[in-house]
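This follows on from our talk about sequence and fold. Go ahead and set the record down below:
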Amino acid sequence: MSKILFKLRNVPDDEAEEVRALLTDHHIDYYETSAGNWGISMPAIWVRDERQFQQAKQLLDTYQEARSLRARAEYARLKREGKNKTMLDNFKARPVLFIAYILIVLALFYLHFKLIMALVEP
């Protein structure tokens, strides 16, 4: 019976490709399900053979550990070089969108406060 190995929702394409290559290189029989036409199904990679599941899980755990270390090293390098993305960079890239988000958050706080005050008043 097949077992789910790796959920693909919100996974970057490069990571999904690397996982597929890892499984293929180690001759692990797998298949993939998509999110469907409406995006409500679960996209995932499944291992067909239960006997291969533990090996696949160990490979995936090792891969994710290495990927995490690479990402942290890349972030540290960018931070050291002063090239990491900051909130100011986001503001400079899309000032209108940034201000819109701030206004939406403030409006939500205001409405929440008004609701509480309306409930407290007799």
Remarks:
- The mean pLDDT is 95.
